[in-house]
Amino acid sequence: MSPAHGGPTPGFLVWRLSTKWRVAVDRAVAPLGLTHAQYSLVASLYGMRRAGERPSQRRLADHTGLEPLYVSKLARSLEAAGLVRRARDPRDPRAMQLALTERGADVTRRAIEVVQELLERMLAPLGGLDADRTREFTRDLLSLLDAPLDPSTPAAP
Q: I need a surface site. Which of 3, 34, 75, 100 has the fewest CB within 10 A?
């Protein structure tokens, strides 16, 4: 909270919204045997597969913004659950490629439907998923995600 403004700071609101979203997704996908982090991984894999890609764990980490070691841990747990298949990348034997199993694709499709409904509810105050305010909000979020936060990187003007 910012005493100078008498209300919450943008950073506080980003934190609150991200926490609210994470908790809501965790609860929504729990009946399917997933956590929010696992959902982020399998939904990304699902979308990448539809685009013809079979990503490495590193590529998936870059795509999701998760740490590579965390992606590795998630991938192993998803493999143990029979949702993901891990295999050595033929082009780079040090890298692991990830793919959804048939069961993983089925669970992911159902999870995407559940999370899509949740997203519609969250965006209803902006007019819904296809509203102009939502598109503007999405552009603002992309701008914030592109802003460097590394202390050694100068801020953009």
A: 3
